[in-house]
User: What shape does this take?
Amino acid sequence: MIKADRIKFRDEFEAVYGIHISENDELLPILHFVFHSVKEVNESRAKQESILSDLINKINRPVYNFAPGEAWQFQVAASLKWLFIGISIALFAWVAFKWWSANNDLDEARRIIQSSERINSHLLKNTKKDADGFMFLEFTEAKGIR
Assistant: This one.
């Protein structure tokens, strides 16, 4: 930095922050860099804020003007809308669960039947008929009680 730049920056820094620094201070170039970086960031942020506020003002938000006593109807309609959406989601989840449960149970039943063929054939060999023609399994014979 040349001496004129140092004096100009020193005066500007003192005017903004109220801190007096001599023009021969070794920290002056560092403060110069930091001061101007902060200034650029503040200017950029202010520009972005103005652009954002302009965009927000351009958005056409719906404005509802209700006469006294009419707002409750709007609230009921909004509540019914969310109730319908909630019931639809719950119904879909219930149907999906029932479908999954039915398919899952069917697969498990098939697996049980396939794995228990030996047990079924053994049980069918040990069935007996009573006088009325009903088939039954006599478990007391297996215990040796008879």
Q: What stands out?
A: The beta strands are 127-129, 135-137. Residues 33 and 119 are 89 Å apart (CA to CA). The mean pLDDT is 82.
